[in-house]
Amino acid sequence: MVDKPKAVVLFSGGIDSTTTLVIAMQRGFEVYALTFQYGQRHAMEIEAARRIATHIAVAQHIVVEMDLRVFGGSALTADLEVPKGRVPSDMTHGIPVTYVPARNTIFLSYALAWAEVLEASDIFLGVNALDYSGYPDCRPAYIEAYQHMANLATKAAVEGRQHLTIHTPLLHLSKAQIIQKGLELGVDYALTISCYEPTAHGEACGCCDACVLRLQGFAAIDRKDPALYCVTTEGTR
Length: 237
Description:
about 35% helix; alpha/beta; Rossmann fold; five-stranded parallel sheet; single chain
């Protein structure tokens, strides 16, 4: 039997990263899932990531702990208000306060280190340039630049044993297209959580940017979101 190529998948437990993880498996990779507990207020996603990684049976799942609250600068890591009640058109301009400074650069650096240890040449990242066009570290130019840097940065690359490719299969898909793709691949979205400010019981708020985009994505394909919400969301389905 030919061994499957290994891939590191950045994995938060939300819709995008879960769909990306399953796409990596569908493409024939042995998946190594990498999750970060970085001081985010929506840390409930860590438990979701653990549930999904167990349910899907990835090769290995690591949760890295760090504390980006020491820098702050984001509604996810500092005492700043999470935007609520915005419509998707409000999210298409400017950089939102939920942007975490340099987060994807930090996460990709960990993924690069693990990939070198695993002798893997592939990293999967669930960034999306349509729904969050304001995030500078979700742009195609950023991914291309990081990949170029990564292939200059490691011993394995310098010695010719690794040529890293960063895969972004969701980059140009709408949330509805992402959900549809995941459903076709058998993703159980009831296991995922997207909310920026869930309750202690894991119920989503239904009105932060992440919830709005998630709900509208399901509504666009005429499907009910299986996530639990602390408020009624029938009007957005």
